[in-house]
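Review form for a predicted model. The reviewer records the input and the model, then writes brief findings.
Reviewer: anonymous (R2)
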Amino acid sequence: MIIAENKTTSPFRDVPYMGVIWVVAEAMKLGFYNGHPDWSNLGQGQPEIGEMEGAPPRIRKIEIDPGDQAYGPIGGTQELREAVAAHYNRLYRQGKDSQYTADNVSLCMGGRLMLTRVFCALSNGKLGYQCPDYTAYEDMINNQFGRLEPVLIPTIEENSFGIPGTEIEKTINNYGLNSFVFSNPCNPTGNFIKGDEMEMYVSAFRSTGACLISDEFYSHFHYNGNEPTKGPASAASHIEDVDKDPIIIIDGLTKSFRYPGWRVGWAIGPKDLIDTLGRAASAIDGGPSQPIQRAALQVLDPAYADQETNAVRQVFSRKRNIMLQKLKGMGIQCSPEPNGTFYIWTNISALPDPINDGHAFFQEGLKRKVMTVPGKFFDIDPGNKRGGKSPFQNWLRFSFGPPEDNMLMGLERLEEMVESFR
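Model under review:
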């Protein structure tokens, strides 16, 4: 009698943690948890969430209407979609004939989910992306392999790792792109395409018919050198016809309003594309939470929203300047110096061996209860087609998202760490 060998195989594929999630998972093995007073998370992808200088009080209570117990509309409630449309019209569309309405808005439980909807809804063709950029794009693109053809658009440090506005139309045509996704301002570099340069972007996508997916979650983190600006920036300011220009803007309450745990994200764009996203949502997630949408109406009240986002620019501009000074003092190159986000993209190759490697620096930082994010995570490589050593092996992303005192604690520990290797 022959007994078959008992083989155990998993029915699931191997799914790696992405970027910051991996960093947190490694730190948790050593006792980290969110809010731990003796840890400094200089890798975190969320802003500080507590009471903050100049900001309105944090919302602490949510009222649940009896009707909220039911399933809500797949694309979000009428009330919140109207509020999002009004928010964009007030900030970016004043005096323009074409205005956003609720039909131009789709809501979901967070930015990753909205990006998933968008990638699933894109027609077959070439999807352009740049490096470095948001880590989660890689796996989202992987999920559409065989249908979407990912195309890496090379960038250089001299252009702040972005595609200049003067080159974007040529890029679309030369690569035959059907769509292009990027975070703007960029996670991790803090480079912000805005003003005349964004005008060139929108014009190029309008004339070619390719779709621009503008991931604008950090749109209110906007700096002019060492000073905060007076307001945000968005592709929405440059659109001629909200129902014809092929521009999808993605944002939410996660970053600029400091409510990441609420998981409120949205897409705003032409009605027909928004309708398609709703159809995709019917198969993917079924729509957002009704009680959270009701609470979100308070956040988008103009007086509340403006006080919050003005405070964000003031406080985070100050933290940006402190972190830049500290990192430069350690011999770390900050390139570019960010004019958006709450991140600083750094080249650590001039540091002593072995901490001139992103992974080694990260591991040494963990020993001192400080977290950073190795640069290789932002080297988006769908399907691992390129392979080999990442060009960002000697790069790190630092976050000035934590409260200022916690950020300073982490930076001072890193100063001691760097000095110990000299």
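Findings: The domain at 20-53+306-420 is CATH 3.90.1150.10 (Aspartate Aminotransferase, domain 1).
Further findings: Residues 302-329 form the longest helix (28 residues).
Recommendation: see findings above.
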